[in-house]
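User: I'm putting together a teaching handout on how sequence relates to shape, and I'd like one worked example. Could you take Glycosyltransferase 87 family protein from Streptomyces hazeniae, show the sequence you're using, and then write out its predicted structure as tokens right after it?

Assistant: Happy to. First the sequence, then the structure tokens directly below it.
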Amino acid sequence: MTTVHTEQQPERADDDPREPVRPTEQDEVAAAGSELFGGPVGRRALTGRGWWSPVRVIALVMIGLFALGMVQKLPCYNGGWFYGQTTQYVHACYSDIPHLYNGRGFADGLTPYFDRIPAETSGGMEYLEYPVLTGVFMKVAAWMTPGGGDIVEREQIYWLVNAGMLMVCAVVIAVSVAWTHRRRPWDALLVALAPAFALNATINWDLLAVSLTAVGMLLWARGRPLGAGVLLGLATAAKLYPVLLLGPLLVLCWRAGRWRAFGAALGGAALSWAAVNLPVMLGAPQGWSKFYTFSQERPVDFGSFWLIISQRTGIALDGESVNTWAILLVLAGCAGIAALTFFAPRRPRFAQLAFLVLALFVLTNKVYSPQYVLWLIPLAALARPRWRDFLIWQSCEVVYFLGIWMYLAWTGSGDAHQGLPTEGYQLAIAAHLIGTLYLCAMVVRDVLRPEHDPVRRDGSDDPSGGPLDHAPDRFVLGRRARSARTPAPFENSLVRWGTRQAG
């Protein structure tokens, strides 16, 4: 049977396409949760008129959530990082930031990548094992940390300085998500209220790359592919994962025939990445390459299904073999996502494919650090803005967050056996894997059955698609994709609304 997709109408005849979508009218969980704050917000509060606009509210909520995450680290700030190895695990308040201040030479004023780190402080790591832009971020925070005095106090101040800088990144992420879908700014509350965001925000420096990626996606949504590419290139210079988003752009532009837009994004990404990396690559090649060699040589580690296999079978998996298998799994998964793109009845949204590709990378990687969930949270809010599914996934991530620290407490407490044994930690890993797969399944269902996609219920096509939004298809596979027609531009909804009001 041939399926013909007609243009979707706004849900209510009196909906104004110029006003934000009301999540409490479309999402039963959001409606129920709003009762804690006096019930659903009215039309006037949601229109953006007055000071309390959606973006300002979301920014303030993000700051509040981030502050709660800092409070959660208080037991470690008061001594857990320095005076007791297992304290930081028992209280689940571990952070790399204070440890690496001295361990990577920042306390001694060393220049990352150029200066070799003394073995007595580095634990055998000769050079900083982070990408260049993250190293710059760390060094700027070190410049802002007062020198002299007790090293413990300096590490505390260094963490506070980094936390302040990362808070700015968090606000940028929330605001960028709010602006990406013009009619759905309130979806950014999923980011601003994500419990895993608060718990993991100050473990490491991942929010720098996440914020640059969020701005890059915003620029793409605004039809600026070159600027989007520049930001994605900078994000890749801070963390490797953002380069994966070029894959979804490739297949989406292929289906829409928008090769010029993809070329601009690809060129911008290459140029900005090279501008950051080439000076260090040429001036300190050994230090620059440390991140890439460390990632390649790293053995099977925490959080991966590879670790479960190794622990359950008693076989020590070889790191090089796992690298090969992981790459093959990623390539096979990407081929499946590409097929999904070309066979889908409507072209998938950019955020949907971006989430699927990144989730694929996370699920197949040989290590899953708890802060990696920060990569997925903004994409999940854009790809599947449904509170029930989002909270199910977040619950699984909170279980994993607690599980890894309790497991480290178990392994580090000797005969005291404080924490979670190996079998319990494996269940925590399974919770993370199942939760992520569940959200992936929901996104794939939305792609295959676009009528279930919450973003497209009001007649929208791809608000985060930029040059792809309402673009006609040029290359598709399968009868369902060929029979689908591209929806009319959303501006037609505004014309229809004005006609109804005039009538």
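A couple of points you could highlight for students: Confidence is low (pLDDT under 50) at residues 1-15, 488-503. Residues 53-490 form one domain.
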